[in-house]
Amino acid sequence: MVDVMDDPEGFGGVVARTARLLDELGADAPPIGLADLVRKVGIPKTTVWRLLNTLCASGFVERFGSGYVVGSRLMRVAPPRRMWWC
């Protein structure tokens, strides 16, 4: 089985790239700028910019000053909670 996170250009490319962005945004508490995101995720700048614009338009990511943070819609969709198996 292919791990889509290791093969962003192959199976599940857009979803894998979007997941990488969200993982990185979730890892940093302060807002993170476009150049830093590009460097950390290893995705072309134009692709990161396009994905961020789509995520911002849907509320999953928000602009904060010159950076980006996890958006309120994502927090509503996946609130921190105890897992069913715990």
Describe the structure in your own words.
- With 86 residues, the protein is mostly helical.
- It has a domain at 13-70: Orthogonal Bundle (Arc Repressor Mutant, subunit A), CATH 1.10.10.
- It has four helices and two strands; from the N terminus they run αααββα.
- It has helices spanning 13-27, 34-41, 45-57, 72-77, and strands at residues 61-64, 67-70.
- It has a two-stranded antiparallel sheet with strand order 1-2.
List the SSEs and their pairings:
Blueprint: H1 13-27, H2 34-41, H3 45-57, E1 61-64, E2 67-70, H4 72-77
Antiparallel strand pairs: 1-2
Give a summary of the structure in a few sentences.
The chain is mostly helical and 86 residues long.
What characteristics describe this protein?
single chain, 86 residues, mainly alpha, Arc Repressor Mutant, subunit A, two-stranded antiparallel ribbon, 4 helices, 2 strands, globular
CATH topology of the domain at 13-70: Arc Repressor Mutant, subunit A
Please tally the β strands and state the result: 2
Could you say which overall geometry the principal axes of the C-alpha atoms support? globular
List segments where confidence is low: pLDDT < 50 over at least 5 consecutive residues. Answer: none
**How much β-strand is present in the residues?**
5-15%
Q: How many helices in DSSP terms? A: 4
Just give the CATH class of the domain at 13-70. Mainly Alpha
Helicity, as a percent range: 40-55%
Order of helices and strands: HHHEEH
Please give the CATH architecture of the domain at 13-70.
Orthogonal Bundle
The CA-CA distance between the termini, in Å, is 28 Å
Q: Radius of gyration in whole Å, from Cα? A: 13 Å
- Please outline the major beta sheet: 2 strands, antiparallel
| CATH homologous superfamily (4th level) name of the domain at 13-70 | Winged helix-like DNA-binding domain superfamily/Winged helix DNA-binding domain
| Order of neighbouring strands in the sheet with most strands | 1-2
